[in-house]
Amino acid sequence: xxxxxxxxxxxxxxxxxxxxxxxxxxxxxxxxxxxxxxxxxxxxxxxxxxxxxxxxxxxxxxxxxxxxxxxxxxxxxxxxxxxxxxxxxxxxxxxxxxxxxxxxxxxxxxxxxxxxxxxxxxxxxxxxxx
Length: 130
Fold this sequence. Notes:
Layout: H1 5-15, E1 20-24, E2 31-41, E3 47-61, H2 63-71, E4 75-79, E5 81-84, E6 91-94, H3 96-107
Parallel strand pairs: 1-4, 2-5, 3-6
Antiparallel strand pairs: 2-3, 5-6
C-alpha cells in the first residue's frame, strides 16, 4: 500500500482537480501503534496470548500534521502502516478501517467515509451492517 496504492489514489485525486498527498502512518509519526496481542481460549479453557506478528492497533495520531495539510486544502491519502509506539524503528501493519477510525477521531470528524473494495462494514459476527 505504502508508496504504491496510496500514491495512485493521490494522483487520481489530483487528476480530478483536487490536491492530495500520499502518506504512510510512519511519515512524521502520523500513526503510532501498539503491537496487537490476542487472547484465545485453549482446550483446557485457559486463556493463551497469541502474538500476531507485526500487526498493531493505533494509539496516537498526529492530528497537527493532518490539520496542517487540510488547512492548505491538501487531502491526505494514508497507507495504514504505523511505527511501534514502544520501538519506533519497528513497522506495524494496522487494519485500514481501524486506522481510518483513529484518524477520524483524532480530527474530531463528524463523519467517516470509507472507500473499500469489500462489500461493506461487517459486525462481530461478519454480517453486513446496513
